[in-house]
Amino acid sequence: MRHAEHRGEVTPTVRPEMTTGGVAATAALTLLGGWAIWRLTPNNAHYAIHWAWLPGTAIGTLGGLYGGLCGWLAPRGVGRGPMLAAGYLQVAASAAMLVGGVALLVSGTSFFTWYSWLMPGAAGVVFWPKGLSMIRQVYDQTEMRRLESRDIAET
């Protein structure tokens, strides 16, 4: 046993609350998170606790980068199509995370697993549509300023 511990082959202890709900949880994590390819079984359910921060952090970081990019490009009127498409993609990702979080909750996974999917998904579904309408409004205002300046220049 001592040599197995030295090589790092010791299986961690898994508490009953760390076990998963089975196939539904595995399918939800596999479909909604490409990084979550492992199966959450009692032998490796400890990964759910150690990696629970990743989904919310990933979508939050992407949202922050997106917001900064929009704040830089929208007043200039640059990239309207790609930026709005990326925003709609973020809403879709949030909705998928929300559905996945609900599926994980219903399937009986641990709190660390379902909460890390459900909470960022719910926040994204609630707040992203308002942010997209504001971004669209900035692009529209920029377009109106451009048209007005062109009209003034022609007269």
List keywords for this structure.
6 helices; mainly alpha; 72% helix
Q: What is the CA-based Rg, rounded?
A: 22 Å
Shape by Cα distribution: elongated
Number of helical segments?
Answer: 6
Distance between the termini: 89 Å
In short:
The protein has 155 residues and is mainly alpha-helical. It has helices at residues 2-6, 23-32, 46-50, 54-73, 80-106, 111-154.
Can you walk me through this structure?
The protein is built from 6 helices and no strands. It is mainly alpha-helical and 155 residues long. The chain has one domain. α4 runs parallel beside α6. The longest helix is centred in the last third of the chain and has 44 residues. The radius of gyration is 22 Å and the shape is elongated.
Topology summary:
Blueprint: H1 2-6, H2 23-32, H3 46-50, H4 54-73, H5 80-106, H6 111-154
